[in-house]
Amino acid sequence: MNYLDKVLFHLPDIYDCSVRQWYVMNEHINMCEGAVAEAGMEAHTFFLNLMVILLTARVFAEVAARLQVPAVIGELLAGVVLGPSLLGWLAPTEAIHLLAEIGIILLLFEVGLETDVTRLIATGAKSFLVATVGFVLPFVFGFTASYFFFDLALLTSLFVGGTLTATSIGITVRVLTDLQRQHSHEAQVVLGAAVLDDVMGVVLLAMLYEFYVGGGISYVNAGKVILFVGVFFLLAPLVAKLISLLIKHFDEVTQIPGMIPTAIVSLVLFFAWLAHVIGAPELLGGFAAGLALSRRFFLPFGMAISTHPGFGRKIEGQMKPIIHLFTPIFFVTVGLSLNLREIDWSSAFIWIFSLSAFILAVLGKLLGGLIIREGGPRGVVIGLAMVPRGEVGLIFAELGRVSGILNSEVHAAMIIVIVLTTFLPPFIIKWMYRRYPDALPVDGDAKR
Amino acid sequence: MNYLDKVLFHLPDIYDCSVRQWYVMNEHINMCEGAVAEAGMEAHTFFLNLMVILLTARVFAEVAARLQVPAVIGELLAGVVLGPSLLGWLAPTEAIHLLAEIGIILLLFEVGLETDVTRLIATGAKSFLVATVGFVLPFVFGFTASYFFFDLALLTSLFVGGTLTATSIGITVRVLTDLQRQHSHEAQVVLGAAVLDDVMGVVLLAMLYEFYVGGGISYVNAGKVILFVGVFFLLAPLVAKLISLLIKHFDEVTQIPGMIPTAIVSLVLFFAWLAHVIGAPELLGGFAAGLALSRRFFLPFGMAISTHPGFGRKIEGQMKPIIHLFTPIFFVTVGLSLNLREIDWSSAFIWIFSLSAFILAVLGKLLGGLIIREGGPRGVVIGLAMVPRGEVGLIFAELGRVSGILNSEVHAAMIIVIVLTTFLPPFIIKWMYRRYPDALPVDGDAKR
User: Fold this and answer.
1) CA distance B403 to A13
2) All structural domains of chain B with their residue ranges
3) What are phi and psi of B339, to 5 degrees?
4) Are A262 and B71 in contact (CB under 8 A)?
5) Cβ B205–A266 below 8 Å, yes or no?
6) What's the rounded Cα separation, in Å, for the pair B269 and B285?
7) Integer Cα distance of A258 and B328 in angstroms
8) Sign of the C-alpha dihedral, residues B226, B229, B233, B239?
9) Mind listing the pLDDT tens digit of every residue in chain B (448 residues)?
10) Terminal C-alpha separation, chain B
11) Which residue of A256, A260, A268, A396 is the best one to mutate when testing the B interface, meaning the one whose CB has the most B CBs within 10 A?
C-alpha cells in the first residue's frame, strides 16, 4: 500500500509499535498479523527482500551449475550467505516463509506430475524397505550413541535419534533433477522412500511429543495417522483426477484468461490443506495432486478416464513458470534458517558428538539403500540420496531447542549434522554417476 | 512447516500467545512477525485462505462474465462476500496483503507491456488535462461542500476532498480490459491520466499530512516528489530495457530452467521498490518495467536497441500465468477491506452527505473527461473510467479514521462513496459502449 507507506514515513505516530502491541495483548492473538497488515507492513521492503532472494538464488545456482555442482546447493548457499550465518541481511519473515511453503508443495506437485504411478507402485516394495531401514537404523544408532556413550538424558537421546531419521524430500528430489536422473530407476525408489520417510517422521514426532507430555505413548493414535495417510493416498489422486476433468471443461468454456493457473494452484493448495487435516505432511498433498494430473496417471481396475495429452501439456506450460518462481524461495529459506554463528566452534563435545552423529546418520541411510541389493553403485546412490536432512531436520532440532529437550551444545551438534548431510551427499552422488556410468545410465529404464 | 504445525497441535504450551507477546514487547517490533514465522504460522490455514480467495474470485468472475458484467466486479464482490461485510470468513492477513500488492504491480506491469509508448506520449497532453481537471474539481467540490455546507472542520474537509480525488488505476484498467477496449483511444487517454492521478494523489497526501502535523505546507517537498517521479519515468524504462537485454542473454545460455519468471519478477519488484524510494507509488514501478519490455517500446532520438519479438512473446507466455494468478488476489483484498456492517444505515447525515459527495465525485471526474472535447460519448466514457476510487480511496479514508481526522459518520459516508464509485461506473461504461457503437468502435484506432 504505497500511500500508506508514505504516510507511515511522514507520521510514525499513527501506527506505531504501541498500537501493534496493544492489538497483540488485548485482542485475539491473530490480531497481531492483522495489525501489521493494517499498518501496511512495508510492502516495498518485502519487494526488495523477495527480489534479493530470487536474484541471489539464481546467481548462486548459475555459478553452481558452471562448477558442475547441483544448482540446489547454490540456492541453499545463497540462504546461508544472506542469512544470520554470514551477512545477516535477511531474516525469513512470515510472508517469505509462506511463499517458501508454497514453493515446496509446488515442487512436489511438479514431481508428482512427472511421476509414473505404475512404476511407483512397481518399486513400492523396494521403497518401503529403503524407507523403513533408513528410518529405524539412524534412530536406533542415534539413540544408542547418545544414551549409552554420551550419557544424555532419555528424552534428549530419543530426540537426537528422531532428528537423524528425517530425509528432506525436496533436496533429495532437486539433486537428482539437477543431475538429470529424475526418471532413473534409483530416483523412483528414492522418491517412494522419501514420501514414506516423511509419513514416518510425522508419526514419530507425534509419538515423541506424547511421551514428552504424558510420559506414555498411544499406539492407537499412531495407527490412526498411518491409516488416514494410507486412505488419503488411495483416494486423493482419484478425487484430484475428477476435479481436473472439471477444470478442463471450464478451461474450454471460459472467456476470462487465467483459468489454469488459478484452478491448478487452488487444487494444489486444497490438497496440501487436506493432507494436513488428515495428519499427513502438507507437501504430500501437492505430490498427490501432481500424480493425479500426471500424463502417466492411469486408474486401477482398467477404469477408463481418458487422459488428454494436450491438456497435460497446457498445464505443464502454464504451471512451470509459477513453479520455477516459487521453489528457489524454499531452498533459500532453508539456508536462511541456519545460524552457523550460534555454534561454539571451540567445544570439543560439539565436534566429537556431531561427527559421530554424522557418521551414524550417513551409515543408517546407506544401509537402507544397500539392503535392497540393487548392485553396489545403485544401492549407494539410493542410500546417499536419502541422507540430506535439510529443513525437516532443522524443524526437529528447533523444536528440541525451544522445548528445552536439546541443550545448546547438542542443538549445535545437530545443526552441524544437518549441514553436512545436506551439502555433502550431492557431491558424492555426482561423483558416483561419473565413476560408474555403466551401472547408472542416464535413463535408468534402459538397464531394467 | 507441517511437522511444526503438528507439534503446535499437540503441545500448545511451547509456542503460545505469551511467547509471541514477549517477543513483541521486549524485542524490536519486527520480531513480532519473526516470532509468528518461527512458530510456523499455520501454513495450512494460509493455504486454505488463499485457495478460497482464488476460487471464489474465479467463480464470481465467471458468473459476472455470464451476466455480461465486467469480471473485476465479480472479484471485488467475492471480497465483499467473504469479508466482514457479509460472511466474515476472511480477514486480509499480512501475507495475503503482500500477495495482493504483488498482484497489482504485476497487473500494471502487464498494462505497461501492452502499452505503445509512442501513443501514450501522443495522448499525453489530453491525459494531463483529464487528470488535472479530474483531480482539482473533486477536491474543490468535496472541500467546499464539507466546509461550507456541512460545517465540517477544516482538516476534515480537506481530507474529504482528498478522498474524492483518488482514481483506482487497477480497477479502471481492468474494467476496460474486461470490455476488450484496452487498446482503444479512450483507454490510452485514461491510462495516462490514471498514472498522473496516482502521482498527484501521493503529493496531495504528503501535503495534507504535513499540514496536519506542522500546520503548514512545504511546496519545496511537493516539487521534489514531482521532480523525482518525472526523472524516474524518463530513466526507469531505459534502465529496465538495458536489464532486459541482459536477461535475454542469460536466458539463452542458462542450463537451469525458470530464468524468465525469476528474472522478470525480480525486475518488476526492483522497480516497484525503486519507485517507492523515489517517492512514487509502487505500482508505477511495475508499469515502467512493463513499458520497457513492451514490444512497442522504442527509444527516443532514434537510438536503436533492437526489439526481439520472439523474446517478447516468450516473456508474455511465461509471465501471463503468474500475472493471472496474482491479480485476482488484489481485487478480492479490496473487497475484503470494506466493512459495510460498520455503517449506521439509519443516520440521515450519512445518507445525505454520502449522496452529495458521490454526485460531486462523479461530476468532477466527468467534467475532467468532457474537457478535452473528444465528442460526447467518448468524453463521458473517459470521465466515467476515472470515477472508481477503489483501494486508493479506502487508504485515504482509513488513514483519516485512524488519525481521528474523519469521525465515524464521515468515514462511513466515504466508504459508501467509494463503493458506489467503484461498482456503478463499469455498468454505465458498458451501457455506453452498447448504446454508441459507432462513436466507440472496438478498435479505437480505426476512428482516429
Assistant:
1) 9
2) 1-41, 71-447
3) -130, 95
4) no
5) no
6) 8
7) 10
8) positive
9) 344 444 333 332 222 222 232 222 223 223 333 333 334 458 889 999 999 999 999 999 999 888 888 888 899 899 999 999 889 888 888 899 999 999 989 988 988 888 877 878 888 889 999 999 999 999 999 999 999 999 999 999 999 999 999 888 888 888 888 888 888 888 889 998 988 888 888 788 778 877 887 777 777 777 887 888 888 878 888 888 888 888 888 888 888 889 999 999 999 999 999 988 887 788 888 888 888 887 666 555 444 455 667 888 888 899 999 999 999 999 899 889 888 888 888 889 999 999 999 999 999 999 999 888 777 788 899 999 999 987 778 878 878 887 888 888 898 899 899 989 988 998 899 898 888 887 777 654 444 3
10) 57
11) A256
What residues of B are in contact with residue A21 (Cβ under 8 Å)? Answer: 24-25, 29
Residue written as grid cell 468535496: B142
Which phi and psi (to 5°) does residue A438 adopt? -80, -40
B271 has a chain A CB within 8 A of its CB = no
Contact between B403 and A11 using a beta-carbon 8 Å cutoff: yes
Using CA atoms, how far apart are residues A186 and A440, in angstroms rounded to an integer?
9
Which triple of cell numbers denotes residue B30? 519486527
pLDDT, tens only, B358-406: 999 999 999 999 888 777 788 899 999 999 987 778 878 878 887 888 8
Q: What is the 3-state secondary structure (H, E, C) of B265-281?
A: HHHHHHHHHHHHHHCCC
Q: Do B320 and A258 touch (CB under 8 A)?
A: yes
* Alpha carbons B448 and B446: distance in angstroms, whole number: 6
Instruction: Give the separation between CA B440 and CA B181, rounded to whole angstroms.
Output: 9
Q: Do A34 and B65 touch (CB under 8 A)?
A: no
Q: Which residues in chain B are closer than 8 Å to A34, comparing Cβ atoms?
A: 91, 93
Spatial contact of A265 and B54, defined as CB atoms under 8 Å apart: yes
Question: Do A10 and B51 make contact, defined as CB atoms within 8 angstroms?
Answer: no
Nearest CA in chain B to A28: B17
Query: b/e map of B121-135 (b: 16 or more CB within 10 Å)?
Result: eebeebbebbbbbbb
> Which residues of B, range 145-164, sit inside 8 Å of A by Cβ?
none
CATH number of the A71-447 domain: 1.20.1530.20
The residue among B5, B6, B224 with the most chain A CBs within 10 A of its CB, best to mutate, is: B6
- Residue A150 carries which side chain, given as an amino acid letter? F
Sequential DSSP letters for B143-182: HHIIIIIS---HHHHHHHHHHHH---HHHHHHHHHHTT-T
Contacts of B402 in chain A (CB under 8 A): 14-15
Distance between CA atoms of residues A375 and A373, nearest Å: 5
In this complex, is the C-beta atom of A48 within 8 Å of any C-beta atom belonging to chain B? yes
Closest CA to A109 of A264, A247, A260: A264
Closest C-alpha to B411, from B148, B79, B159? B159
How many Å separate Cα A188 from the centre of its chain? 17
Please give the radius of gyration of chain B, using alpha carbons only, rounded to the nearest integer.
23
Does A93 reach chain B within 8 Å, measured CB to CB? yes
Provide ipTM, 2 decimals. 0.82
Taking the CA of residue B320 and the nearest CA in chain A, the distance in Å comes to 8
What DSSP designation does A301 have?
T
pTM of the model: 0.83
Q: How far is CA B183 from CA B177, B189, B413, B436, B440, in A?
A: 8, 10, 35, 17, 12
